[in-house]
Amino acid sequence: MGPRLNKKKAGWIALFAIIASIFLAPFSGYLLLPDQAMAQAPPAFDGDENPRSNFWRAVREGNSGYTAVRGDEANVLIQNGGENWRQLKQPVAQYGGWFIGAVALACLLFLLLKGRLRLENGESGMTVERWTTFERTLHWVNATLFIILGVTGLSLAYGRVVLIPIIGKDVFAAYAGLAKVVHDYLGPVFGVVLTVLLLRWLWMNIPSMTDVRWFLKGGGMFTNEHVAAGKTNGGEKAWYWLLFFGGIAVVASGVVLDFPNLGATRGDMQLANLIHTGSALILVGAAVGHIFIGSIGSEGSLRAMTTGRVDVEWARQHHDLWYQELLDQGVKPQTDSEAQAARDKPDKEAHSAHTPHSA
Ligand code: HEM
């Protein structure tokens, strides 16, 4: 026979069970589903610490929770990468700004100390074609888009620091709203035009040993030496390839930023933003140098892109190998008016061919 359970003993067991279950109740999770219960365990409270701080620490580390909002990463309350992005963006914007300023200063010093690169023998009045109408249109459409994107982009990047003190918050808010829309819409258009331009000029920007020699002699810019160059010289090719790789970086990252609905995560957007800002600032700095050398920095260069023709003295001085190639191909230098007349002639002939003769 087993031990008899008298009423008194049963009463003590029942009381112990009730008290024990009251104490054990909070820990019941551990006993039933250890893993899940560990995950839900309240943070330890060491007296001074806010009991919720461990919870928010976990949130800040990017741990997912639950939210009724739908969408990618909607359950991440605080994405910790945001803080890293904020800290990296500041030096990118700062050093990028310094770079643009340094290029502008170098151009100014060049002008003050060395002066404009002059045509040694002056203009001859005889010219050869350098860029076709299509190429010039491509260049100026591209340059116009680039300048609008550059101005609006820089306004958005530095507007708070630079523009608000000058034009005030209200005017800046209105301008920035417009600048953002213009920037967002013109970015992809620039991407298309730039692609056509880069493809069109790819063939003449393939690097060669002539370019290495050009660089070793600094393009003759400081020694006044004539350094051999083909249709484009080492400096122009460097600008082209910077535009090629920088252009891919700035356009691709811009598309990611322009279309958040394409599925990029917040981390992707932060990276895209840093790449976009960094590459855009490098391109703007290099463009300042290009614009300088293509206009006031070098006598006779700008007409290449405005009229499409250059003086033979300019061609001989800056692109001797290319000029020799033209002569070898039988190209005859002409005055601008002769070239214009030659261009008009086929039109006139075509026109008179269609004009009925009066009887
Ligand atoms: C107002 C601004 C600009 C001026 C005055 C200017 C001027 C010029 C000139 C004169 C040339 C012909 C150089 C030569 O015949 O050797 C040229 C070529 C070129 N420009 Fe510009 N430009 C400007 C803006 C831009 C911009 C913003 C870009 C690109 C985003 C650009 C890209 C190019 C390219 C790729 C070439 C062809 C040379 C090469 O292949 O490296 N330009 N530019």
Compact overview of the structure:
With 359 residues, the chain is mostly helical. Helix content is 67%, strand content 2%. The structure holds protoporphyrin IX containing FE.
Structure description:
The chain is an all-alpha fold. It has a domain at 126-333: Transmembrane di-heme cytochromes, Chain C (Fumarate Reductase Cytochrome B subunit). 67% of the residues lie in helices and 2% in strands. It has helices at residues 7-24, 28-32, 34-39, 53-60, 81-113, 133-162, 164-200, 209-216, 234-258, 266-294, 302-306, 312-318, 320-328, 336-354, and strands spanning 127-129, 309-311. It has a two-stranded antiparallel sheet with strand order 1-2. The longest helix has 37 residues, at 164-200. It is elongated, with a radius of gyration of 35 Å. The model is unreliable at 25-40 and 355-359 (pLDDT under 50). The site of protoporphyrin IX containing FE has 21 residues, from α6, α9, α10 and α11.
